């Protein structure tokens, strides 16, 4: 396989990113790959925020993975900065290739580089395979994640 | 009791905020109220970020509660913007007064006002009283929260 590069997402990557978000048991119900307008608006908003890092894994010009890393300063834990990982997806053709590990390792390394003391993420309670994956990478399932739709 | 105001934190509120962060079974082990320097640095970083809202509940000039609301744009869920609540604390003298509810309701209302489609938070698995509190306020414990210290 070609070399893999993890790089910031560009506007032309949006269709590939949305296709991956939708190619997922939960994402299939809540994404709209046939209408990219809301994604383009969100992309513009992300691009202007220096604490936001929407990344893609690029293999020979093909987008095969994505994640979003957000850096969040804060007062708690002696003024710790934390990072949050959201929207991790690996293209179906690449599953089992170690790409998920590469993406999370990138996020952990980048968080350390930016001075974060903590990396966190939430995973839907039904994604038990993902939970084992994060535990293997040194994450602890120490919290309960609450969500409220508006 | 005097009227309650929920307002952005000011630099002079830092000692009161840190005292509340430390007056907590988990916070007692990880905060340093005798050394405010790291908190002042973090405060400056938060103040410069328009997506960060470090708030205090002020009753007659006394800081009696705090929370941090972060607004996070994103591509997933049709370009949804979400918000994250962190660092919720209520002064010991105010516990049971409904102030926690007021703070969370403020965060939910402000998130809606800013166009968020989702509000989320994580709570340590040991804080079972807090879990019931969030469920009463319409949050669903749908996710597992993973953390990795760096």
UniProtKB/TrEMBL annotation, chains A, B:
* Keyword terms: Acyltransferase, Transferase
Query: Might you give the EC number(s) for this enzyme?
Result: 2.3.-.-
Q: Where is the N-acetyltransferase domain?
A: 4-150
Gene3D superfamilies linked: 3.40.630.30
* InterPro entries to which the protein is assigned, alphabetical: Acyl_CoA_acyltransferase, Bact_Acetyltransf, GNAT_dom
Q: Which PANTHER family match?
A: AMINOALKYLPHOSPHONATE N-ACETYLTRANSFERASE-RELATED-RELATED (PTHR43877)
Q: What is this protein called?
A: GNAT family N-acetyltransferase
